[in-house]
Design a protein that fits this description.
The protein is of the alpha+beta class. It has 2 domains: 297 residues, Deoxyribonuclease I, Chain A, CATH 3.60.10; 37 residues, no CATH class. Helices cover 17% and strands 26% of the residues. The chain contains 8 helices and 17 strands. A 6-stranded mixed β-sheet has the order 1-10-11-12-13-14, with no helix packed on it. A hairpin with a 3-residue loop joins strand 2 and strand 3. The protein is globular, with a radius of gyration of 21 Å. The protein starts with 62 loop residues before the first strand and ends with a strand. The relative contact order is 0.16. The N terminus is likely disordered.
């Protein structure tokens, strides 16, 4: 459905990661000797907090940890189709990947079918990455029903490796695993105020209530072929000290400062191992004000370890905003950027028809963005 190079795979039940209440001291995290050091470095300069606080607490800065079950990457050998000098290993039935194979002692001669079964794969497989602001399950134009489960099942149908969601209602976090068959890492940005009735009340009037009662979260979904290394990190994009400095510099009004404090925004990041490489996968949702959102993203880029291979996804809320050291953005606010990595196929938005409902509305007011990372 999302391209001829993808085939559906059997989904596996995933679990929501649990939380731990101990704060992450980012200044003392060290890499193990057997693992690549650069991807273990925690974002420098981020302030720490052990649990998300309500927006009324302007000092709720920083980083929190969430523990998660380690998804074990399993693989199956694929049958190969021979070419000159190299083999493109095409997936067998039910498989989705292809690998570039180099056969020793055949660099200057032809490769035949017998070489397809020699254990000489030396290149990492590509990663299909998607990001989507799901608009709390709403449609555009707004309808009287929520479509969040349909959105999740649509975007994972052909088995992507990484899916980054923004604007997820908090009640849905423990359902994402069942809907997607992937391992879920949640990051709550705004706590729900409506309690157990929040979902029902929001479904009665999704156009007005939106995140007021159900809260708001980010979520990273990873396929089983990616192995978690360490723990998830949550970095607040608009901590109190940063808001104070920017507020003075920009001469923000009291109302603007309170609104910025109320809309707590975060970036979540995990280190994952794909075969022998370890990369950072991150997902952010910046403040709705475009100018302040750009400042939040710039601050995050300054904190980011320059040597860590990174995939940074999310809703930047700043159109076409470039970050130092990262790949060029799309002309929009939803982005997939890389640092220390390359694209096999650059970021692109889904066509409108791929997210149209039976009654003609569009799933979300944002289009999913996808890319293939080499």
């Amino acid at each position: 459905m999302r391209g001829d190079h993808r085939r559906p795979i059997e989904r596996k039940q995933a679990q929501i990661c649990g939380r731990e209440r101990c704060p992450l001291d980012v200044q003392h995290v060290r890499a193990k000797a057997s693992e690549p050091r650069q991807a273990h470095k925690v974002l420098r300069g981020a302030d720490g907090e052990s649990q998300p606080r309500t927006a009324e607490e302007p000092g709720a800065d920083g980083v929190e940890e969430l523990t998660a079950p380690v998804p074990l990457g399993g693989g199956h050998l694929a049958e190969a189709k021979p070419r000159r000098h190299q083999l493109d290993v095409e997936p067998a039935a039910g498989k989705r990947r292809r690998e570039r194979v180099v056969v020793r002692d055949r660099e200057r001669s032809r490769v035949d079918k017998r070489d397809a079964h020699r254990p000489t794969v030396i290149a990492a497989m590509s990663l299909l990455v998607r990001t989507w602001n799901v608009f709390h399950g709403r449609t555009s134009p707004p309808s009287s029903a929520l479509h969040l489960e349909e959105m999740v099942r649509t975007v994972v149908e052909d088995g992507p490796d990484v899916v980054a969601f923004q604007e997820v209602p908090v009640w849905a976090l423990d359902r994402l695993g069942a809907w997607s068959g992937m391992t879920v890492f949640p990051a709550v940005a705004m706590l729900p105020l409506g309690g157990p009735l929040a979902r029902r009340l929001t479904e009665r009037n999704p156009q007005r209530l939106r995140s007021l009662l159900t809260g708001q979260a980010n979520a990273l979904l990873l396929s089983s072929r990616l192995e978690l290394v360490g723990r998830q990190r949550i970095i607040r994009l608009n901590p109190g000290s940063f808001r104070s400095a920017e507020g003075r510099a920009r001469r923000l009004s009291l109302r603007e400062r309170l609104d910025w404090a109320w809309n707590r925004r975060v970036c979540q990041a995990v280190n994952v191992r794909e075969r022998k490489r370890v990369i950072v996968v991150a997902n952010l949702h910046a403040t709705k004000d475009h100018s302040l959102a750009a400042a939040e993203a710039d601050r995050l880029a300054r904190l980011w370890p320059p040597e860590a291979p990174t995939i940074l996804c999310g809703d930047f809320n700043a159109r076409g905003h470039s970050l130092v050291g990262f790949s060029e953005p799309l002309d929009g606010i939803d982005q997939i950027l890389v640092r220390g990595l390359e694209f096999e196929r650059g970021p692109s938005r889904w066509p409108v028809e791929q997210r149209r409902t039976e009654d003609g509305a569009l799933l979300s007011d944002h289009a999913p963005v996808e890319a293939v990372v080499a």
